[in-house]
Design brief:
The protein has 257 residues and is of the alpha/beta class. It is 52% helix and 16% strand. The protein starts with a helix and ends in an 11-residue tail after the last helix. It has two domains: 4-103; 117-246, Severin, CATH 3.40.20. Its main location: cytoplasm. Keywords: Actin-binding, Cytoplasm, Cytoskeleton. One of its GO terms (biological process) is regulation of actin filament polymerization. It comes from Bombyx mori.
Length: 257
């Protein structure tokens, strides 16, 4: 015959198991809503961009193929949102009733946190290295190690920079590019978000939130780009974006080499 103490211990274990399930369910709900909010903000931006392109299309001043590609991006974002909401709904079927029955009269005061961490010291050092005129460093790349963002590489060769981004990972890049002409050479800075085409829906959705975290340190740049294809990592395209952001360049067309 089991002792009352053994029954008490077993009952406590069952209760603790149900509390853990409740905590996991709460964590999942918080994560899903954070991801949903981030994707809704991104969806607004995409819709705004497509609206502008439609106006240009009516004026005959845009590339129809580019518009088609943008519409496909919008469709993908909407599919991602649907998947997140559906996944959250399906995952929400955890034994909530069982948890509630065991939870009566008790409260779980543990605070759930799902925030991505930063290796602030190395990220800030790399950021200041790229910005410094006294070092040859032209770029830095930041990647995820578990739940933390760290500086994974820095250098001066753009060809090497291009090799830092694979199809199955997320990352950030910070670059210094020389712009202007022979009359007004100047350095400009660009922030890049990379989401590879093989990145999962959930990690893709988290990118907007994680980007906001790292921008707490990397805050000074003229242009911000989000890229998802290797062909988009192109120095001429980067410089064109910086030129459009900074206005026209004036000069004789002869450059000092």
């Amino acid at each position: 015959m089991a002792s009352p103490f053994a029954d008490h211990v077993e009952g406590y274990k069952v209760f603790q198991d149900q509390i853990d399930k409740l905590t996991d369910a709460q964590t999942l709900i918080i994560t899903k809503f954070d991801n949903l909010m981030a994707n809704m903000n991104e969806l607004r931006e995409v819709l705004g961009g497509i609206s502008d392109k439609i106006v240009l299309l009516e004026e005959g001043a845009t590339d129809r193929r580019k518009l088609k590609a943008d519409i496909q991006v919008l469709k993908t974002r909407i599919d991602d949102l649907y998947a997140i909401v559906k996944d959250g709904k399906d995952s929400g079927s955890t034994d909530i009733q069982d948890v509630e029955s065991c939870h009566s009269g008790f409260s779980n005061s543990s605070k759930v946190t799902m925030t991505t961490g930063l290796d602030r010291e190395t990220i800030r050092a790399a950021y200041e290295d790229v910005r410094s005129d006294t070092t040859p460093t032209e770029w830095a790349v930041f990647k995820f190690e578990g739940a933390r963002i760290v500086c994974s590489a820095r250098g001066s060769d753009f060809t090497e920079f291009r090799t830092q981004f694979s199809d199955d990972e997320r990352a950030f890049g910070y670059l210094r590019l020389q712009m202007g002409d022979e009359m007004s050479k100047r350095k400009k800075f660009m922030f890049m978000t990379w989401v590879g085409p093989n990145v999962s829906v959930i990690n893709r959705a988290k990118m907007s939130t994680d980007k906001a975290i790292i921008k707490d340190i990397i805050s000074n740049f003229a242009v911000e780009l989000q890229l998802e294809n290797q062909s988009e990592i192109d120095i001429d395209q980067f410089k064109d974006a910086l030129n459009r952001a900074g206005g026209a360049n004036y000069g004789t067309g002869v450059r000092d080499l």
